Amino acid sequence: MPILVSIPTPLRGLTKNLDTVNGTGSTIEEILANLEKEYPGIGERLVDEEGRIRRFVNIYVNGEDVRFLQDKATPVKDNDEISIVPAIAGG
Fold first, then answer.
1. What is the pLDDT of residues 33-90, one digit of tens each?
2. Domain map (residue ranges) of the chain
3. CA distance 82 to 28
4. Are 5 and 31 contacting, i.e. CB atoms less than 8 angstroms apart?
């Protein structure tokens, strides 16, 4: 079974309007790099110039925030579900 990556609405223009895509890799870092290869432009919206996950982007593996796991080094395996969730500012 593939690793499923849920794409938020603002980024679906880069994934041909797909809300879920298959991810490949054994870590979040590899998943993000492969998403950029498959869907050019998505990477710069998810990571900053130093390669860190942007502050306003939350990435979850099976419902767990990767920032509380191993960040980009968080391992992933078949059947995992990755959710990319842009932070919502409020006031």
1. 999 999 999 999 999 999 999 999 999 999 999 999 999 999 999 999 999 999 876 6
2. 3-86
3. 9
4. yes
pTM (2 decimals)?
0.92
Q: Which amino acid is at 44?
A: E
Q: Please answer whether residues 12 and 4 qualify as being in contact, where contact means their C-beta atoms are separated by less than 8 angstroms.
A: no
**Residue 28 DSSP label:** H
Multiple choice CATH, 3-86, 3.10.20.30, 3.90.1150.10, 2.70.50.80, 1.10.150.120: 3.10.20.30
Q: How do residues 14-34 score in pLDDT, each as one tens digit?
A: 999 999 999 999 999 999 999
What is the distance between the alpha carbons of residues 79 and 82, in angstroms, rounded to a whole number?
10
DSSP β-bridge partners for residue 22: 4
- Return all residues near 61 (Cβ < 8 A) that are at least 6 apart: 28, 69, 74, 76, 80, 81, 82
